[in-house]
Amino acid sequence: PMTTYRVCCFLRRFRPASNEPSEAIGDVFEAYAGADGGGSALGEEALRRFLREVQGEAGDDDVEAAAREVLAFAAEHRLLKKGGGLTVEGFHRWLCSDANAALHPRRGVHHDMGLPLSHYFIYTGHNSYLTGNQLSSGCSEAPIAKALRDGVRVIELDLWPNAAKDDVEVLHGRTWTSPVDLMKCLETVKEHAFVSSPYPVILTLEDHLTPHLQAKVAKMVKETFGDLLHLSESEAMPVFPSPEDLRGKIIISTKPPKEYLETKSSKEEAQNGSAEEESVWGDEIPDNKVYDVTAVNPMCRFQRRTQSGMWKRMKRWRRRYNRGLTGSIKVSSQSASPGESTTWIRISRLIPRKCLG
Asked: Where is the composition biased (Basic and acidic residues) (predicted)?
């Protein structure tokens, strides 16, 4: 069936998405419900058999616990038949819900958590402060608390100056979203960070602040989180710490200040400049060493000079390009007019010797 909705003075028609279970789910339901004699409902015994044979629940205790969770989910959403048993709609909704997650919370943490942090998938939030859409909704600390309780480990905050440029607000910049106070967000992170998991929380700060406000935020973060804040002992680590090493810690992730990057870049360029130049151009060649004739550029420049002027030019060229350059020089004599000795000089494109192998 088609349905409609109004946009200004127009009516738009569309076909709603179907909530019907797929054919594969229907076949599985019929196989277990039919074997139990119900046909239209999945009884408790058939549900236990499904959990054991299909879902892989091993022990009897695990099967019973899983069956109780399924029936509780169905009862909460009114998906049980009057005579008992799970309807096909309830079976479908339970299979596709968070209650049937592949990594069920009941199992707990069962992986090795001693590897570097970069070896793990991390449950990440985006614009964690928004209560609705990214254009016109409000900003609040409530979505942050909910995300942390649901197990999210990365919270993102967009930091912008307020209208007076003397304080910091959290909002989706250049939109109509209403701001929320940064301190409220930080206190919410501290309160709910480790409710659902003891492993680290990464607080990503998208920084649009002036240096003065950056310093203010740094002070707020230190005072709010205190010992919970993870402080690295060095600027560059060979590997990240493990989640086990970072239990109960909050990590701040943001770009370094622009001034820091510029200072660091200029220092590195000063240190590496001379070494890079030597590696490209090679050692200086003494005057008595003959040049290699290897690279000939077909697009040559021809210049007409007198005999004496030609040798002066070659001498200047040799002094100027005496640092590991390779080129070819071809000299041929022609007489332009009686009594005048002239020479045509072809100088190829010069390239670093090491680039030629």
From this structure: 261-270
What's the pLDDT tens digit per position in 309-333? 555 665 665 555 554 444 444 443 3
Confidence of residue 98 (pLDDT cuts 50, 70, 90): confident
Report which of 345, 344, 342 is spatially closest to residue 307, judged by C-alpha positions: 342
Residues 157 and 279 grouped into a single domain: no
63 lies in the same domain as 40: yes
Q: Examine the domain organization and report whether 284 and 351 are in the same domain.
A: yes
Distance CA 155, CA 143 (A): 10
Cβ neighbours of 269 (radius 10 Å): 10
77 is an active site residue: no
What the block records as the tokens of 292 is 């290699």
Q: Alpha-carbon distance 250 to 226, whole Å? A: 10
pTM of model > 0.70: no
Instruction: Identify whether the C-beta of residue 157 lies closer than 8 Å to the C-beta of residue 185.
Output: yes
Interatomic CA distance for residues 112 and 143, integer angstroms: 30
From 172, 192, 212, 230, the catalytic residue: 172
Classify residue 8: in a domain, yes or no.
no
Out of 126, 192, 212, 230, pick the active-site residue: 126
Residues linked to residue 345 through DSSP beta bridges, in sequence order: 303, 331
Q: Does residue 126 carry a catalytic annotation?
A: yes
